[in-house]
Write a structure and sequence with these properties.
207 residues, alpha/beta, Ribosomal Protein L4, Chain: A, four-stranded parallel beta sheet, 4 strands, 32% helix, elongated
Length: 207
């Protein structure tokens, strides 16, 4: 997504929520690989280096203390660290709505009834996307049934990705230049997901 995709009318686009949702999605993909050993994980150091008193040296209980060479690491990265973030469901829905709105205003949202492919062939899918969008960067959001039939055709296309309806992530919606939605995807994302449902309040004693 480029700045040119966001037009001057920003009254209905909440960039703050959009940015927060992207940060949450990317952070939740983070894997904790780095792992350092603290003084309890380093081997050795079971015996007291010297007696407590009478040597003139500082007290020492283990040679694996963090202040010793070869000792444990204090406050180092651990594989058990949890960096996951949470975001309210309504804010996630608003972020996705804003992403579709940005693509729609930039005229990069293509709506089709279905994928007109006789066979799941990579060349035919690539030609279809080029004819529809004129770009090699495209996210295709289709129904689960269509995904099972034609997903194999998009595997060898580096900048064209096909996902079922419920697996379209916000990062993908913003990373790809164009978004292609079939009929079921349009019904899901452009209508039912964004309809505001009002729950009637329960009648109180004073009502």
């Amino acid at each position: 997504m480029t700045k040119s995709d966001i037009k001057e009318n920003k009254s209905t686009i909440n960039l703050s929520v959009l940015s927060q949702a992207v940060r949450t999605a990317l952070t939740n993909k983070r894997t904790t690989v780095a792992h350092t050993k603290d003084r309890g994980d380093v081997s050795g150091g079971g015996i007291k280096p010297w007696k407590q008193k009478g040597t003139g040296r500082a007290r020492a209980g283990s040679s694996r203390s963090p202040i010793w060479r070869g000792g444990g690491i204090t406050f180092g990265p651990r594989s058990t660290d949890n960096f996951s973030l949470m975001m309210p469901k309504k804010m996630r829905g608003l972020a996705i709505k804003n992403a579709f709105q940005i693509k729609d205003e930039a005229k990069k949202l293509v709506k089709i009834d279905s994928l007109a492919l006789e066979f799941p062939k990579t060349k035919k899918l690539e030609k279809l996307i080029i004819d529809l969008t004129g770009s090699y960067s495209c996210l295709i959001v289709v129904s689960p049934e269509t995904y099972k039939l034609y997903s194999i055709a998009s595997r060898n296309l580096p900048n064209i990705k096909m996902v079922p309806i419920f697996n379209a992530s916000l990062v993908d919606l913003l990373n790809y230049d164009f978004i292609v939605l079939d009929k079921q995807a349009q019904e899901h994302y452009l209508s039912s997901v964004f309809e505001k449902t009002v729950t009637p309040k329960k009648a109180g004693k004073n009502d």
